[in-house]
Amino acid sequence: MNRIAELRKEKRMNQISLAMKLNVSQKMISAYENGKNEPSIDLLMRMADLFNVSTDYLIGYSDSRSPGHQIGDTFYTDLSKNELMKIYDKLSDKNKSLVQGYILGLFASQEPETKDPSAGLSSQNRL
C-alpha cells in the first residue's frame, strides 16, 4: 500500500493528520503503508474520495488515478458535455427517457446553491 504514503505526502499530510481525517489510528495508517494490514473497502472508498483517485489506483490494480468507467475496450473519465452527448445519442429511446428522468430527479433533489434565476421559467424553458 505504498500509494497511500505517496498520496499522503503529495497532500503534505503526516500519518497522524490522515488518521484523524479517516477516524483511524496512526498505527493503522503505518500498517497500511507498510503492507502489514489492508484497509476495509469502506476505508478504501473514503481514501479514494479524500485523495480524488480511484480505488483501483489505491490498491495498485490500475495506474490511472482518475475514477472512471470502462465499457468494452474504452475507459471513460471526466467526460465533456460533447462526449456525454455522443454517448447519449447512441442510446435507445427507452434509455434516453431513463436518462432524462434520472437527470430531472437529480435536479429536483439538488440543494440550491444560491437563488435560482430560472425559478420563474416553465419546466420546458428551464433546461
In short:
With 127 residues, this protein is mainly α. It folds into two domains: 2-58, lambda repressor-like DNA-binding domains (434 Repressor (Amino-terminal Domain), Orthogonal Bundle), CATH 1.10.260.40; 79-112, no CATH class. It has helices at residues 2-10, 15-22, 26-33, 41-51, 55-58, 81-89, 93-109, 123-126, and strands spanning 69-71, 74-76.
Major sheet: 2 strands, antiparallel
Give the beta-strand count.
2
Summed over residues and divided by their number, the pLDDT gives a mean of 83
Q: Determine the strand fraction and express it as a percent band.
A: under 5%
Helix content: 55-70%
- Which CATH architecture of the largest domain? Orthogonal Bundle
Shape: elongated
Give the strand line-up of the largest sheet. 1-2
* SS class: mainly alpha
Cα separation of the termini: 45 Å
By CATH, the superfamily of the largest domain comes out as: lambda repressor-like DNA-binding domains
- Order of helices and strands, N to C? HHHHHEEHHH
Radius of gyration, taken over Cα atoms and rounded to an integer in Å: 20 Å
